[in-house]
Sequence to fold (251 residues):
Amino acid sequence: MKNIVLIFLHLFFTFILHAQNKPVVITYGIAMNLNMPNPGVRTLTGQLSIADGKSMYGTKTYENYKPVENDTMMFKRAKDFQSFIIKDYNNKKSFFQGNSPFLKDKNAYYTDTLYPMKWTVTGISKKIDQYTCFKAFSIFRGRAYSAWFTPDLAFSEGPWKFGGLPGLIMELYDEEKAIYYKFISLEYKTVAPIQIPENKGNFIVFKTELKRAIKKMEEQISGGEKVDPTCLDCSSTAKIKLATIENILEE
Fold:
C-alpha cells in the first residue's frame, strides 16, 4: 500500500511539472470589500500567467466596473494589469510590488517565500463547474482562508501569493468574505517572457518601511507631533488603519 501511495505521489507531481511546462493563462474573478473609507464591493479581474518555471499574477478592473460613490481606489482608474506578483518556482521565491500610497516607490519589488502560507487539507469536497474540488484551510497574516482546489488541473498555483496545494485553486475566500477569488477560465497560449525583477529586500524590509512611512504620515496628520520613525511600537494621536489583504500593522 505504501508503495502504491509513493507511486501515485510521484506520478502526480510529475504531472504537475509536465503541466507547468506548457504556457498557460488562468483568469480569476475577484470581489473585495476591505472596509475602506468608502466601503463597497469592488470587482476585479485577476490574471495568472505560467511559463518556463515562473508565473506572473496581476489585477485590473472589469470593463463594466461600477465604482462605489466617491471611490478613490486606484483600481477604478486601472486599464491595464497591475500589482504584480512574480513567482520563481526553481528558487522558491516570490516577488511582489509594494503598491502602497505611503511608500515613495509603490512599484518597487520585495521578496517573499514561495507560498508563505501553511495549508490544512480537509476531506470536504464539492463540484465547481465540472471539477471535483477539495477544501483546504489556512490562517495567513491576519486572515483565515478557505481554498477549494482541484487535482484535475495539476498546477500548484492560485491567485495572488496563494498556492502550494496539490492542484489549482478554483475558489478562495476569507472567513469575513472581505476577499473572494473565483476561477473563470484556463487557456493554453503563448506567454510573454516573465522577468525576475530587481528588489529592495524581503518581506520584513517591506513591512518595516511601510510601518515607518505610516508613522511619519500619522505624525503629519496629528499636527506635527513627533514620533520616532525607528520606534515601530510608538504611537501618535492620529491612527491609520490599512485595508489590505495582509493585516501587516496588526501582526
Observations:
- The radius of gyration is 20 Å.
- The helical segments are 2-19, 203-221.
- Residues 203-221 form the longest helix (19 residues).
- The first strand starts at residue 24 and ends at 32.
